Amino acid sequence: MVVRERRLRWPIPANFEAMLRLQTVHRVARRAKYILITLDSGTLILHLGMSGSLRLLAAGVPPRAHDHWDIELDSGRLLRFHDPRRFGSLLWTESDPLEHPLLAKLAPEPLSAAFDAEYLYRATRRRAVAIKQLLMNSQVVVGLGNIYASEALFHARISPRRSARRLSRAQAEALVRSIKDVLAEAIKIGGTTLRDYVDAEGTPGYFAQRLYVYERAGEPCRVCKSPVKQIVQGQRSTYWCPACQR
DNA sequence: ATGGGCACCTGGCTGC
DNA sequence: TGCAGCCAGGTGCCCA
């Protein structure tokens, strides 16, 4: 392993590279947006933050700006982490990664059976916060970022401003359905490339073409033609159609 | 327990 | 052309 920049969200310790030498990869998994790579003696926990990407590159490809670390594989190929904003992270644990403080209290995966209408309905009771913000709370559901929270609410025809506790059972059902559909569809076509997101092969995702409201402020709603609105909730932009969403 | 606000950082775009 | 200001795909932490 080669580390060129240790100042990620949490600094990469000086002995990190030494620890990883000659270890075998046993398993690659994911929990929420954390990528888990299990080696002989522990597990790498990595996160891409907002601007991070991982690429699998041929041996010897010279690093560019913001290429913060490489892991060299037996084949000579390089697993390279690139992250201009340095919001990403790389951590190491020698115990069960799911017990790591950052992962231990995470809510169910949105595409799992545990995330169903009953679960969401219960999770929204007594919560005054706007439903959009609740959807981005990793103690309620993980994996929903700013894009897909807006999109899922649009498809469920629910106002992002609606207080979570005012969700009806039917709305909870519609919302769970929309979340699963939006995420499954986005994954199928490689995610959303707005500026520079690319997958491990450097290929962009095409979900941006399927966005109904995100980054479409002032443009006509794809369903009813009235202008898409942009508001700020919890310091994040939310996009929605006040005519379609109630 | 809950909610709100701040922090971390760089780059790209807009408007003067 | 330069520069200030604003905005951005996330999420942990601190405070009330």
Task: Walk me through what this model shows.
The chain has five helices and ten strands, in the order E-H-E-E-E-E-E-E-E-H-H-H-H-E-E. The protein is of the alpha+beta class. The chain has a four-stranded antiparallel sheet with strand order 1-6-7-5, with no helix packed on it. Strands 2-3-4-8 form a four-stranded antiparallel sheet, with no helix packed on it. It has a two-stranded antiparallel sheet with strand order 9-10. Helix 4 crosses helix 5. It starts with a strand and ends in a 6-residue tail after the last strand. The mean pLDDT is 96. The structure holds a DNA duplex (16 and 16 nucleotides).
Structural class: alpha+beta
Largest sheet: 4 strands, antiparallel
CATH topology of the largest domain: Helicase, Ruva Protein, domain 3
β-strand percent reads 15-25%
Distance between the termini: 52 Å
In total, the number of strands is 10
What kind of oligomer do you see?
single chain
What coarse outline follows from CA principal-axis ratios? globular
CATH class bucket of the largest domain: Mainly Alpha
Mean pLDDT: 96
Helix content: 10-25%
What's the number of domains?
2
How are the strands ordered across the major sheet? 1-6-7-5
Mind telling me the C-alpha Rg?
A: 20 Å
- H-E string: EHEEEEEEEHHHHEE
Unreliably modeled segments:
none
Number of helices: 5
CATH second-level architecture of the largest domain: Orthogonal Bundle
